[in-house]
Amino acid sequence: MSLFQMPVEVKSQLDKIVRSFFWGDSLERKRIHWVHWSIVCNSLEHGGLGFVDLKLKNRVLMNKWIWRYGMEEDALWSKVTNSKYGGANTDLLPNVCNYRRFSTLWKNITNALIFDNEYANTFSSSVGYSLGNSGKIKFWDMEWILGTILKFSFPRIFALAVNKEGRVKEYGNFVNNVWGWNITLRRRLFGWKMQ
User: Fold this and answer.
1) Contact 72, 88 (CB under 8 A)
2) How far is it, in rounded angstroms, from Cα 195 to Cα 74?
3) Where does residue 145 fall: left (phi above 0), alpha (psi -120 to 50 degrees), or beta otherwise?
4) To 10 degrees, the CA torsion angle through 129, 165, 88, 180?
5) Are 158 and 140 in contact (CB under 8 A)?
6) Which H/E stretch holds residue 150?
7) Are 33 and 93 in contact (CB under 8 A)?
8) C-alpha to C-alpha distance for 146 and 161, rounded to whole angstroms
9) Are 151 and 141 in contact (CB under 8 A)?
10) Within its chain, how far is the Cα of 149 from the centroid?
């Protein structure tokens, strides 16, 4: 359940077994289900009984592999994935540029990183970055400033940047315990662009 996407039929059969047990159904007699199953699956704080939504649980466990990708850079499976699908051991998230060439297993895992599906909003709204030494966070491509991907927010400056693939730590340093930015551009900015 943590590695493979659960087939819809398996999920519906497991839900049916749990519902039948909960409502006291038997082979001879089916009882009335007084509350919709989605309400029963809500947490106690939201008026439910806290039953597990198997589809959501499956997605959460698959998302853990994305988290592990950024944390276990020296793991054999991470190295194999990088060599097969592209990417670097210093990346925080898997590279999804070659998504069509991915195996079904890796497609299902990285599905939360593709922004045209039902899982993307849940994943991106649940993930936050802590800079730390900022060696894994891509300066232009990742949402490390709340709600902002810099290459989309500042496309003109991105077009002028010399290093478009750099990490945050490559764009500045501490001077007297104060962070100073050092973004190298192909040419100087005009005064109106600096506002």
Assistant:
1) no
2) 43
3) beta
4) -50
5) yes
6) helix 150-153
7) no
8) 22
9) yes
10) 15
Confidence of residue 45 (pLDDT cuts 50, 70, 90): very high
Residue 37's contacts (CB-CB under 8 Å, 6 or more residues apart) are 15, 19
Distance CA 15, CA 105 (A): 24
The phi and psi torsions of 172 (rounded to 5 degrees) equal: 180, 180
**Total-model pTM:** 0.65
Q: For 89, phi and psi rounded to 5 degrees?
A: -65, -15
pLDDT in tens, 59-97: 888 888 888 888 887 889 888 888 888 877 667 777 777
Quote the tokens at residue 145: 């400033």
In contact, 138 and 90? CB cutoff 8 Å = no
Q: Give percent above pLDDT 90 in the chain.
A: 4
The amino acid present at 152, given as its one-letter code, is F
